[in-house]
Each structure stands twice: as C-alpha cells, then as structure tokens.
Design a protein that fits this description.
single chain; 635 residues; GMP Synthetase, Chain A, domain 3; Metallo-beta-lactamase, Chain A; seven-stranded mixed sheet; 20 helices; 28 strands
Length: 635
C-alpha cells in the first residue's frame, strides 16, 4: 500500500525531534525537508537517511529561504572565500532548490581542508553548496540553461510541487493493468514515441522526428486518441538527445503539455542544443519550424534531472531508474517498475553493447525484467559491423589515401557522438606521426556538442574521462588541427581553397545543414572523398548516395539542379552508435534477469519482423513487432 503525502508527513513528524523547526514540501517525486537548521539532519548516521529508509522515498534537505543571503551578496562573499588558486570560473544559483554551484578549475581547493571552505560558504550564506570542475571547453548551451533556470526559480519551485502533488494523488481502485501503445518508430527508424498506460497513469517515452522528406511522416501520432488530451499525461521520459527521439518534444508544450520531462543532465543539455538548431535549419531551408524558441524555453522549466542508477517515482504507480545505454552522451535504458512489482519494463533505448572511444558498454543488469522494448536498427540477419578498432583503422587508411592525392575528405556526421569519435580517430592518426596533419574543419553544432561532452566527464568512459580532466595535449578535443568554421564567409573560403583538408559537418543524413554546401562543390571532383560514418535512413540524400546514384538533385536558392557524383563515396559502419546484429543478440543473452517478452521497434519493417522471429527461436521468448498505432497489453 503506497503512502499519501499526508501519511508521509505524519511519519516524518514522528521521527523528527520536537525542537527542530522544519516543514515538508514536494520536489516532483522527492520529499523536501525545508529547515533553518539543515545541519541537524546531517551526519554519519543522519536523520535524513533514517527518514528515507522509513518512507521509502528520496529525501532532500533544503535550507529555508529565510536564512538565505541574497544571491548578489552571496556571490561576492563566495568570491572572497574561494582561494585564487582554485581558479573560480562561474557561480550559479538555483533558487528552486536553494543550491549554489561553484565552478572551478581545481574544485578540491575550493572545498578546502576537510570541507572547511564549503562549510564556511554554507554557514555564512545559507545556500547548499556544490563544487564542480570547470570544463576545458565551456558550453554556451549549459550556461544559458543554468541562467534561465536561475531566472525562473520561483516558477520551477511551483512546478516541482505541482508534479509531486500529481504523483501523490489518492490511489484509484481496481485491478492493475498495463499497456504499451506504439506511436512512432515501430517498423521504421525515426519519430520514436511510446505510450505506457496503466489503470492509474499515462507516461510517454520519447517524442522524436523522422528524418525524411515526406512531411506526413515527420511527426509521431500526436492525434492518437489515447494520447489526448495532453493534460491527462503524467510524465514524459527521454532516453537520449538524438532528433529522432526528442525533435518534436517542444510541440507537446506548444499545444498545452505542462507536466514533467525526466532525463539525464547530459541529455538535457544536448536536447536543448539540437532542438534550437532544428528551428534554425528549418527556417534556413524555408520551412516553417514546428515550434519556436519559446516552446523550448517552456520545456526547460519542466525538466527534472535524473542521474543514472537513482530510482524515482514518475507516476503514482511507476518507478523509474535510468542506466547507461552506451549510445551517445547521457543516453539511457529505462527500467520501469509498475504497480508495486506487478510488472517491470525495460526500454533499451538506442544501445551500443560495446565499449567505444567515448562511452562504456550498455548496462545489462536490472532488478527485474518481464518485458523488453528493444531497438532493432541493425537487427537484420546480415547486419554485422566492424569493431571500433577496425573502424578506426579503416578511417585512418582512408585519410592517408585521400590526402596522398591532395584530395578533400568531407564527412556528414551527427553532432553528438559520431563526430567526437571521428575526432578521436583523426587525433590518434595525426599524433602517431604516420600522416602529415591537415586542418580538420568543424562545421555546425559539433564544437558546442563537444563542449557539452567535456562538461560531463562522468558520462564518458574511464580512459577518456582521465584525458579530459587532465586537459592540455591529453584532451583529444583540444588538438590544434581542429578548427571551428565561423560562419558563411569562412565556409566560402574553405570551399575555394585548393589545399587538402578534412571537414566534419552536420547534418548526419544530409537532409540539410552545412554538409550540403561542401557536397555541392566537392562531389564533382574525383580526388575528393565523401565518407559516411552513421546510419542513413530511407528517403534521405545520404541513403541515395550510398546506393550509388551517379547524380542527385539539390535545391539551391529555390532552384533545383543536378550534382554529378565523381568523388569516392565510402561508408565506414563501425562508428555507428547502434549495436549490430551480433551485439543485439549478445545484449539479450547477457540481460539479467531474462525478459519473458521482447517487443522490437526502431528498425525497418523487414528487419523488425526478421529480428523478432530470430529472437523467439534463439531465446524461446514471446516476441512482437507491432505496427504504429497498435497496442499490446503487458499485464
């Protein structure tokens, strides 16, 4: 029997000594204890830990606003207390959580001996203090998000209380049941959207856009009656920040959704970056964007950060835990615990079951699993890819060949994940001395996405994390051959420069973005090389080029003309962030515990159907490959 909020408050009242002044509030699923004496809840055998164990909920102790120094005065005092050799860079206040984050080059010195400086800040200003290591490359996106949160702290505090009130609503009578409705990415790649419905709640997983020129297929099925009205939804959960999973989330806010969005902090930052760029690209191509920056800002206010491995409530009868999926920065597999243990669902998200140059392999251990919703992008019988090492060697061989004939290499890359892996492969080659370095031009959002990577070292694999934190020449993203393209004029000069070079540019499927400019100018030259390092969906320019078209139509300033393809067109599969057929089968085999049912999605129709049959035959489990708009009852 779950506790109501009043019952939670009653239990806390029974445990807290009468002489301690406090009040209890809600921060989404967490219980917030607000007090003028937060130190009385701390310690090795803390009162906070005992309360959390008793009520079986996350408990956060917050200083009362009455003891907080004004943020401007607190900032000046913090600057006085932090020693100069700590390298103070930024100070961010979050009034919604009564927290201050101190960003330094050397956070250890900012903390002080045995935490003395942090205690002094807390005691003198009242604010709860976090220290954070400054990234070697500062992210403008992260700075803007933190500043926006600071400016809207009162509204965010109110929203967190509202989210919590909905989670702690009275239990509805009746039998527990659960259904999954396919609203996008079923028997196709793109526009991912799933609806989990129980007898008590509705939760959406992902709200993506499809990379296609067919306007009728870009959006998921927003008009499905199960989804409407949006105010009946309890939560949206995001697995990761690729456009095919988050591209149309702001549309939900444009049309009235005002509930929480749960995701990891790296996903939050990348999501805002990519959605903002989605608006710019659509406008530049003469297409009215489906939402505006105001809708993205509204979304930011509703985001609730979730760290990997932390269990939270997202609805009255659904607990959520996120695990590393190994796909891109902050990407997550979702474990949903339904109705006091009645059923457990794992959404794999997009996964890479292999340690890459950037991330650890996807997690396979979960508390319980009855149903697995599994991505199937490369689930076909012949979908095998090289290892990361083999792909890196292939990329390095290609670069040496192309540069030896004084050609140019241009790679359409996804700003997140693939571009950083290719940068590491190039960096290894140039540092090895086996190839004379040339300028590697970075065009599009790649530099900002790289800054976000450097700002979240805990989401990187152990080896790369050490290099990023050490900085200098150790950090592969800081190497001198990487140069950012600053605008149209510089791009024009690069296009006209006869010198050999490498260009990494968005968009990854050549559906728009700066890569199209390089393609128009360089594809007719036989010494040049177009190199694909990521998945190319059906209907995209990238897929047509992979199929060997000798010329393709390109829209240029409102007029269409044909571009002849004389350059080499090469695909290197091993850099994909998706697992291939072998890894997907190994992922299911390694899952602990084993699922009883597997539902395949995020693959074309033939691949999903074939993969479903092979999973059923190999592991003797129930399998489904539903179509969009189908519903499957899970319990």
């Amino acid at each position: 029997m779950r506790l109501t909020f009043q019952q939670v408050k009653k239990k806390i009242e029974e445990m807290v000594p009468k002489d301690i002044d406090y009040e209890v509030d809600l921060e989404a699923a967490s219980i917030a204890i607000i007090t003028k004496t937060p130190e009385k809840f701390a310690g090795n055998d803390s009162l906070t830990a005992k309360i959390a164990k008793t009520i079986k909920r996350r408990v956060e102790v917050r200083p009362s606003p009455e003891i907080l120094m004004a943020s401007k005065d607190a900032e000046l005092r913090i600057m006085e207390l932090i020693p100069d050799d700590a390298g103070l860079k930024r100070i961010y206040f979050d009034g919604a959580l009564c927290e201050v984050t101190v960003v330094c080059l050397n956070p250890g010195l900012a903390v002080g001996p045995k935490g003395s400086i942090v205690r002094a800040i807390r005691d003198e200003t009242g604010w709860k203090v976090h220290t954070e290591r400054a990234s070697p490359i500062e992210s403008a996106t992260m700075h803007n998000i933190r500043r926006y949160r600071q400016e809207n702290s009162d509204e965010r505090k109110s929203l967190l209380r509202k989210f919590g009130t909905r989670i702690y609503r009275p239990q509805r009578p009746g039998t527990t049941w659960c259904r999954l409705t396919a609203l996008g990415s079923y028997r196709e790649v793109g526009r991912a959207m799933h609806l989990v419905t129980t007898n008590e709640s509705k939760v959406i997983v992902d709200v993506g856009a499809k990379p296609t020129n067919n306007l009728s297929e870009i959006a998921p099925f927003f008009d499905a009656p199960e989804l409407l009205p949006f105010e009946n939804l309890d939560a949206i959960v995001i697995t990761h920040a690729h456009i095919d999973h988050i591209g149309l989330l702001p549309v939900m806010f444009k049309y009235g959704y005002r509930g929480p969005v749960y995701c990891t902090p790296p996903t939050r930052d990348l999501m805002v970056l990519l959605q903002s760029d989605y608006i710019k690209v659509a406008s530049a191509e003469g297409n009215p964007p489906p939402y505006g920056l105001g809708d993205v800002q509204e979304m930011i206010k509703h985001i609730v950060d979730v760290e990997w491995g932390k269990t939270i409530d997202v609805a009255p009868d659904i607990k959520l835990t996120m695990y590393n999926a190994g796909h891109i920065l902050g990407s997550s597999s979702l474990h949903m615990h339904i109705g006091e243990g009645k059923h457990n669902i794992v959404f794999s998200g997009d996964i890479k079951y292999e340690k890459s140059w950037l991330y650890e392999a996807a997690a396979v251990r979960f508390p319980r699993v009855e149903t697995l919703i599994l991505e199937s992008t490369y689930g076909g019988a012949k979908d095998f890819q090289p290892t990361r090492q083999e792909a890196t060697q292939e990329m390095q061989d290609l670069i040496q060949r192309a540069l030896s004939r004084r050609g140019k290499i241009f790679c359409p890359v996804f700003a997140v994940g693939r571009s950083q892996e290719v940068m590491i492969a190039i960096d290894q080659l140039f540092k090895s001395g086996e190839c004379e370095p040339v300028t590697v031009w970075i065009d599009g959002m790649i530099s900002e996405a790289t800054a976000i990577h450097a700002s979240h070292p805990d989401a990187l694999n152990r080896d790369l994390r050490k290099k990023v934190l050490k900085g200098g020449d150790e950090n592969p993203f800081n190497s001198s051959w990487f140069k950012q393209v600053d605008g149209r004029d510089q791009r024009e000069s690069i296009l006209l420069d006869p010198s050999p070079c490498i260009v990494l540019a968005t968009s990854g499927m050549m559906t728009g973005g700066p890569i199209v400019e390089y393609f128009k100018h360089w594809a007719p030259e036989p010494n040049n090389t177009l190199c694909f390092v990521g998945y190319q969906a059906d209907g995209t320019l990238g897929r047509r080029l992979q199929k060997g078209f000798s010329e393709v139509p390109i829209n240029d300033g409102g007029q269409t003309h044909m571009v002849p393809i004389q350059c080499d067109v090469i695909t290197i599969d091993g850099f994909s962030g998706h697992s291939d057929r072998r890894q997907l089968m190994d992922y299911v085999k390694a899952m602990n515990p084993k699922p009883k049912t597997i539902i395949c999605h995020h693959g074309d129709a033939h691949t999903c159907a074939e993969f479903r049959k092979d999973l059923a035959k190999t592991y003797r489990v129930r399998t489904h490959a539903p179509k969009n708009l189908e519903t499957i009852r899970l319990i």
